[in-house]
Amino acid sequence: MNQYDFGTVGLGVMGSNILLNVADHGFSAAGLDLNPEKAALFEAAAQPGQSVFGTISPEAFAQSLTTPRAIMLLVPAGVPVDMAIESLLPHLETGDIVIDGGNSYFTDTNRRFMALKEKGIHFFGMGISGGESGARFGPSMMPGGDKQAYERLRPIFEAIAAKVNGEPCVAYLGNGSAGNYVKMVHNGIEYAIMQLISETYDLLKRGLGADDEQIQQLFADWNQGELQSFLIEITAEILKFKDEETGSLLVHVISDWARSKGTGKWTSQNAMDLQVAVPSIDAAVSMRNLSAHKQERLLASQLLQNAASDDTKTDLEPIFRSLQEAYYFAMITIYAQGLAQLAAASKEYLYEIDLQEVTKIWRGGCIIRAACLESFRKAFSDNPGLQNILLDSDIAKTLLDRQDAARTIAKLAIDKGIPAPVLLSSLSYFDGYRSAVLPTNLIQAQRDFFGAHTYERTDKEGFFHTIWE
Fold it and tell me: Please, which pLDDT band fits residue 1 given cuts at 50, 70 and 90?
């Protein structure tokens, strides 16, 4: 029966949309789900003439696929992935390929990679970004695993991926868990940019008293220029969407307790393991955590009231321009931190990640797609060994031209009592990274004073300890 080119396990929104995307591009597609209704709905959603097959039987599913089989798992991360693999194993053969398309933690991917390698089966961890619409019409995909086995997947993936200037937003990214790792950092960057947008919104609304229409129009205008990005685009859409029940903007009746699935936290945790600084991402994770303490914040809002603000009418137009430049400044440093983490992880875990490919496939389909990514791609093309995009002369000039605006807006947020941890962290990262000398020599002295941890000197080699008292 082996007639279907590609299969997925899990026919929820993502799984069925990926397969329908596959079918749209002339490939035959099979899907497995424990729910017979989902299998039937998948078949019913196909267009006339498309070759699709939905089943609840792992055996029938495996038998339906051409060999070597290409099977993508689109089930929740964690135990469900292991359960899906176990259900498939009796029906797989040497050379078959299993792809985990969820947000699995990269160490879990390493474990599965090695376990299946012993059985002669290729395992890929692949990040997919773009949500349900991207899955259906063109996601950004980040696969990592065996490079030779990727050739079986490449024609299908390149066909269904988003395109920018005719180039598919998918590429082989590296060994082992490289794909899941890149997606993890993608999500960390996503956390920070979303927080930066919310800080900008908060400063405009609470800090400056701008009305809803002004704020919405500002984001819409920004999306037409250098700040063009998916997240700015959807922010402009959100800020004009009315709630049918109340008639007010829907955003005004949405809880301020921000949920998360953990990928931002993983990015921060692993950055600390690698000793890579990602303070803007750390700040974004911390603010989501802080948002959960709603009752405490309500009490604190009464006890720790801000001093009365100046009610003098402010000319907002100059501030809007400074905000635009400050946002751009912070956004660039957020990407710089994430990409620097990828560079360090590639060395530590032997991924061999090509950062030009990463920035290239992030230009379309994914949640953090933005116009500025083309300048990053060019920077890595000109200098493949670039460790941080802040060391690219063109990007450095862009930041230098905008740093005054970033400082002005940071001061404004502080004066207004508006929390802006990502903006402030981005400035501190910039200032710290460009400092030829940091005050950490004092920290070294302190460590030696209280713990005899020794220190290094600037004038000679070796480690030294001083009796300070």
Answer: low
